[in-house]
Every structure is written in structure tokens, then in C-alpha cells.
Amino acid sequence: MTTLAEEVLAGSRLALARLLTLIENEDPQGEAALDRLFPHSGRAHWIGVTGSPGAGKSSLVNRLARAFRSPADGSPPRTVAIVAVDPSSPFTGGALLGDRVRMRDLSGDPGVFIRSMASRGALGGLARTTPAVVQALDGAGFDIILIETVGAGQSEVEIARLAHTVIVVEAPGMGDDIQAIKAGILEIADILVLNKADLPGAENALRTLRSMLELGHPGRESAPPSAPSSEWRPPLIATVAIQNEGIPELMQHLQAHAEYLRRSGGWQVRDRSRLQTQLEELLQATLLKRWRSSLPDGEYQQILTDLQARRISPYQALHSLLGEAPFPQSFQRGSSALLT
Amino acid sequence: MTERKIRVLIAKPGLDGHDRGAKVVARALRDAGMEVIYTGLRQTPEMIAEAALQEDVDAVGLSILSGAHMALVPRVLELLRANGQGHVHVFVGGIIPESDIPALLQMGVRAVYGPGTSTQKVVEDLRAAILQEKPA
Known about the structure:
The complex is a heterodimer of chains A (340) and B (136). By secondary structure, chain A is of the alpha/beta class. Chain A is 44% helix and 12% strand. Chain A has a domain at 41-218 and 230-266: Rossmann fold (3-Layer(aba) Sandwich), CATH 3.40.50.300. In chain A, strands 4-2-5-1-6-7-8 form a 7-stranded parallel sheet, with helices on both faces. In chain A, helix 1 crosses helix 3 (28-37), helix 4 crosses helix 9 (247-264) and helix 11 (299-308) packs antiparallel against helix 12. A 5-stranded parallel sheet of chain B has the order 2-1-3-4-5, with helices on both faces. The longest helix of chain B has 15 residues, at 119-133. Chain B is globular, with a radius of gyration of 14 Å. Chain B starts with 6 loop residues before the first strand and ends with a helix. Strand 3 of chain A pairs parallel with strand 2 (35-38) of chain B, so a sheet runs across the interface.
């Protein structure tokens, strides 16, 4: 199967579309093609766009794609891939993917590729295979990859682990200042956008969001101590996407954030931690599957039965399955003494 | 490997602004477990073929009430074939005179559904046709 990856690298859009389907279906052929594309990836700017349903994510993505295609500063156009995720029904597994409705002006441009994805049961705002799909588009040579999440509430924050830059889109009338200081989606914003800023209530919403930002931003690179402290302060930008208001300003901030990441080393930090997450997820799934298949028939079920009958605890089950001696009695006594 | 999903593009080519039928079919296909890409009103054949390509769909449903089907449908079919997507199952719904149906089928349309067709029939036809051509 050299051909599919070769065709993608040669610029075949049909091959690319086929590849994305194989990846989505977790077909081994897709995996093989990704192996070939992976060395070509790592160059694109991955931009996540998230926010509540109806905040205007698709319209904003549409405007951003147009702006990248004909930059206001006269720089050469960038090629753009868009991955738009919508939810799958938890009951039927079906999905209605409607983000293209707002992206019709991108039609006919060979420098743009739009792919709709159903979340297929994943809960973090993306599909399980979205990272691999984005990686394939990166390997295929797109300069910019815009990733639109499902309409997100408060905890759909997977995008923060995937994208270099996260734009959180809000609209007026979505809640008071307590909503704004809850943990979650606002925390992951590298750039905060108030869209539909021509609607009543926009002034209040801007004030609330601004004061939330002033309370401080924990920064996403708090984990690795080597990373520079977050000198990046998320800007707040008011837009009216359907009228292109605020888009030039948003583009400047996107550019500034990419430069900031490159200058501060954050680009490398995010790339490494994303690849680490991906590798660990693969390891977990594979090791679990391999280990389970190595168990004698019935042992696992027997342990589950013992567990359910409260004959053993989950920790004892773990040690028994792994064939380890449980903790020495003295340690157990010691630790329970500590607890009491 | 996860279960194979049927992906369908539902499009409204031409200038009429009535998309209720298209939405009813889109919803029924969704409820049948398919992934439906809905592109909205007033699509050109070029826009439809491009979306079908990027989304790698198994089927394209065209809803036409304007009477322009004899111009729009052959163009969509031609573009799909030119893009290497001759395998895509194209079906047409809307107001299509009985007398035009044989010509549409002759061109390569797999099915034509008039007003009053049950959505269940559309679902069953599609499932049968696609799973037969591309098993799992």
C-alpha cells in the first residue's frame, strides 16, 4: 500500500479523502499510510475553535479560512484544512454534520479542504480519531489546520491538548460572572472571542469576560517546569463574524500567538506533550489488550465475580491478576493506623 | 476497526428555497445511524461534487423542486465521475415528473423518490445498495 500515501503527497484530494475515511474507521491501511505521512508532519499551525453551540464557531472558521487565503498584509496565501466535529447521536450512532452550511464561500478554492467528522461517542468535544486526521492533513502539506469542536459546554477541553492555539468563542447572553469563573472552557483560551458583538448584552458580556481575564490566567504550560511562565495574556476580541468585523484583529493575535509559541519554546513543549499523550493512549490500549489475551480463560471472570461478591477489593484483584504479593501486613497495618 | 459508517451528502442544487424535504430525509438517515452531511440551500453542481469528494461520501441525495433536474442532475453525475467518484450512489427527491424518471435512471441516478415516499424506504434502499457494494 505505498500508493495511497504517495498519492496524498502528490496532492490527490480523492486519495486524501479516502485516507481520512480509513483513519476514522481505524482501518489498518490508514495506519500504514499515516506511517508514511508522519515524517512530513509537524509544520502546520493547529488552531482549535471551541465554544457553546450557536456561538458562531463555523462562521468564524469560515472567515478565518478566507483571511488565511488572502492575507490583508499582502503575504502569500496559506493553504487551509478544516476539521469540523459535530456530535453523534448516543442512541442511533447517526449524526447530522451541518458545519459546511456556514462555509459555502470557501467552495471552489483548491487551497481549502473541509472535512466533517462525527464525534462517534467520544465526550471531549472531538472524535477519538481527530488527532490522527489532523496529523494526516498536516502531513499532506496544509499550512493551517482549523479544528472546530462540537458545541462545547464546560468540560469539553480535549482541544487544549491537541491545538497549538485555542480560540474560545462566546456570544452575549450566555451566563453571568459565576459562569465565567468556573473552571473549564474559558481557562483553555489562548484567545477569547466574543462573537455576535452587535447583539444586545454585548457590553455586559465583554465586561464580564474582561474582568475574568484580569483575575488571572493559570496558563496551559504550568505542567513542565522547564516551560517559560505564561507571559502570554489571552486577548479578548469582539467580532461579528458574518460581517467580518474584528477578523483582521483576530488574525493579528493568531499570528502573534504562533510567534510567541515559537519564541518561548511553547511550540515544542506542546508538540512533545501531544505526541506523548498519543503514544501513551496507544500503549494503554495495546498493552491492556495484549495482557488480557495472555490470561488463562475464566480467570478474569472469576476475579470479577469475587470482586462483585466483595470477597476481595479492587486493589487485591489488581495484585492477584498481576501475580504480585500484596503489601506486607505490617505496611497495611501502618497505613491503616495512619488513616485512623 | 470500528463499524463501517454510511456517509451521505444531502444537497439542494438550484434556486428553489424549500428545504423541508431535504431536512426530513437528512433527519431520517441520521436516525437510521448514518452520518449525514448537510450543505444547505442553493448549491451549484460544482459545490456538491466538491463536498462529496472532500467528505468521501457513499451517497449523494439531491432535493430538487425547481424543475431544473434535467439540467442539474447530469452535471452532478458528470462531475462526480470526473473526480473519480463514479461509485457514489446518487438519488433524487422532490418534484420530478413521472416522464423524466427513466431518463434520470438512464443517466446513472440509482433512485428517484417523489412526494409521499416513506423515509423508511429511502433508508432501506440506501442501506441495501451500499452495504451490498462495499461490505464491511
